[in-house]
Structures are given as C-alpha cells and as structure tokens.
Specification:
It is a single chain. This protein has 290 residues and is of the alpha/beta class. It has one domain: Glycoside hydrolase/deacetylase (TIM Barrel), CATH 3.20.20. It contains nine helices and nine strands. Strands 2, 3, 4, 7, 8 and 9 form a six-stranded parallel sheet that branches. It has a three-stranded parallel sheet with strand order 1-6-5, covered by helices on one side. Strand 2, helix 2 and strand 3 form a beta-alpha-beta unit. The longest helix is centred in the first third of the chain and has 29 residues. 40% of the residues are buried.
Length: 290
Amino acid sequence: MCLGLAILGFILADATVYYFRSQRSSNAAISDGLDPEPPRPADPTIPADFYGQVFRSEARGNPQNAICLTFDDGPSATYTPQVLDLLKEKMVTATFFVVGRNVKRHPDLVLRAYQEGHIVGNHSFNHTRRKRISEAVAAWQVDGTAKLIEEITGERPCVYRPPFGRVHNNAMTNAARARYYAIIMWTIDSRDSAHASAWEIVLNCLRNLRGGDLLLFHDGGEHREPMVEALPIIIDGARSKGLQFVTVPEILRLTDFRRKEPGPEKHKSLPLPVDLTKGHHDVSRPLGTK
C-alpha cells in the first residue's frame, strides 16, 4: 500500500510540474509582444447571424452552386507557395486558416495570400492538442494570432477554425465566439492529412461534391505532395459540375443561417464529371503518369 501511495504521489507531482511549466510557457508567449486585445466587431459585410455561431453545412444545396476551398495549418515555406501558384493559375480564391507561430515564420506568404484575393482566417497560435487550457491562454491563442494577421494585412480576421474541429466546451472556441468570429467547420475532408494518395484525395472531394460544400485541405505540415497534385484535378472537376469557387465570407453572405439544411432527397449530389475508375486515368498508376 505504501508503494502504491508513493507511485500515486510521484504521478501527481509530475503532473503538477508539467502543468505549471505549460502555464509559464504560455504566459511567457502572452507577454512576448502578443498581449490580448479587447474583442472587436467582426467583418460588417458578414451577416450578424453568423457572429459567434458554428457554420458547418448550412450552405449545402445553395442555388448559387458555390463551394469553398479551405487550407489549414500554414503557411508553409514548402507547400503554401505551390498552392498559391495553382490557385492563381486556375483563377480561384480560397480561405487559409493560419497558425500564429507559422505566421511569424512566414509573414511574406500571408501577405501574398491576402494580396492575391484570398481570405486569411484564424486557426489558433500553436494548434495545441491540449483539451483543457485556461481562459487567459485561450484568449492569447486567438488574439495573438489575430494581431499578427492584422499587422501583416491591415485587417482583423473574421473567421476562425478550431484546431481538430473542437467546438464543444472548448476554451479557444468560446474565446472566438466572444470575439464575434464565425466558427467555420467543413463538410468534406480531403483526408490529405491522413496520408491519402493523390487519387484518393480526388475521390474524397469529387464523389459527393455539391453546392455549399466546404472542402478541407492542409498546406501546413509534412507530406502534402499528394494534395498539391490532386488540387488542379479537383478544381477542374468541380467546374465541370457547374460549381463556382468563393471564399468563406462570400458563402456566408449567400447563406440564410436560419433555414434548415435540405435533406438528401431534395439535393442529390451532381454526377461526377468523369468516370473515376476508367477512361480519365488508370487508378493503378500514380497521378501524373500516362
């Protein structure tokens, strides 16, 4: 029994040390030129119904056939320039949910995205995996990143995507709600962060794609080559379905948040532009080969 109490005491002591070290680290970051600022109104062009609300699939089936490409976790010196080059070539605007620590490393890429017509959204400062953080640290995660974005672009971000999609009882999401952000989720996960191949990413995105969808990609992280390879095929495939690309604030303006999401019987997915099992590409070979 004494041995068990000793082990329990050791575990509690270790957890206590970890907690206070984490708090000191966060507090140091807060004081490192990233002091939280008071809440400010969001983009006035976004309907007020979306302020502090979670936006998930309310736009599906919208008559304008608008869809959004969204990119998380950047900017990345390796992949973000490739994504921006492709979007520019295809004349598509997208929304980038950036991580504050990467904004500090690559402010030039944030500025380039903004200047090329893309929306820069907030995705927290360090994409923490911790589920429980203090209100002060949560405020810093949101406000610190917003401050960095505003210093680069001159505009305060108005859309926020929670790390790992955590919205319920989440301190950072609650902080974003209190600051009038629209909390943006997604309807289609490309699975590019789950080591999907380029062709799997194409299938994931085009198979059930319809107006109002928000597609999730990642330009931050490692091994994003399949995503970059799949992206132009997805853009061309979506356009062949009669879909158009807009930014997240634009799709919010096209959506009546109060109406109920239509059922599948009313808005069936449009047919794929090509037979993805034959003719267009031999799926047994890597993309880019004949």
